[in-house]
Amino acid sequence: MRIAVLGATGATGRLLVEELLRRGHTVVALTRTRRAAGPDAATWVAGDARDPDALSAVVSGGDAVVSALGPHRGDHTLHRDVAPLLVAAMRKAGVRRFVGVSGAGIDVPGDHKSRRDRAISALLQRLGGRTVEDKALEQETWAASGLDWTLVRAPRLVDGPPTGRVEHSATHSPRRTSITRADLAAFLADLLDRPDYVGQAPLVAGR
């Protein structure tokens, strides 16, 4: 497939680009500067994720969009700003499938989180206020988009080699509270290859 990637130069995004290329996909990635970009096997489009023209350029002609986009320090509106622009760009380009990374701290209808995770979510929502709210508003935008979206609610991200062991559920808490970036990247790539969790925000963790 031809995959548009946002957040491609971040710690998880770089691994995601490498994983997609390894699987034989064509990758078109958005980057603020080509100098900071990654593998030459990918096509790099210079631009900002809040720029509708840049989003249209990276999405055009694609089969799916995947995002590992993360804010710079102090940016508390990135996801709520980008989501409606990306929805519009995807509709214009006729691209329906979107997979993105959200946070385990947000709650969605139908959740049956464990007592531990309910406490963690409450703490994150209290201490991380605007950042958690940003991700919650992003989820509301995708839920109303009418597109084939999935937002993966990831816990604490850690470095390390891929293990191939990931626990995931649309409604129930995994047993662990962390996942390697490599395993998360592989899980995001898996979701592009199959229609799992369309219209849902699964919770994931290492197993």
What's the arrangement of secondary structure elements?
Blueprint: E1 2-6, H1 11-22, E2 26-31, E3 43-46, H2 52-59, E4 64-67, H3 78-93, E5 97-103, H4 115-127, H5 129-143, E6 148-154, E7 156-158, E8 166-169, E9 178-180, H6 181-193, E10 203-206
Parallel strand pairs: 1-2, 1-4, 2-3, 4-5, 5-6, 7-9
Antiparallel strand pairs: 8-10
Helix pairs in contact: 1-6, 2-3, 3-5, 4-5
Descriptive report:
By secondary structure, the protein is α/β, with parallel strands linked by helices. The chain has a single domain (2-206), classed as 3-Layer(aba) Sandwich (Rossmann fold). Helices cover 37% and strands 23% of the residues. α1 (11-22) links the parallel β1 and β2. α4 (115-127) crosses α5 (129-143). The protein starts with a strand and ends with a strand.
CATH superfamily: NAD(P)-binding Rossmann-like Domain
Beta-strand percentage range? 15-25%
Characterize the biggest β-sheet.
6 strands, parallel
Tally of helical runs: 6
**Strand pairing plus helix content: what structural class?**
alpha/beta
Q: CATH class, please? A: Alpha Beta
Q: Strand order within the widest sheet?
A: 3-2-1-4-5-6
Total domain modules: 1
* Basic shape: globular
What's the CATH architecture?
A: 3-Layer(aba) Sandwich
Unreliable segments (pLDDT under 50, ≥5 consecutive)? none
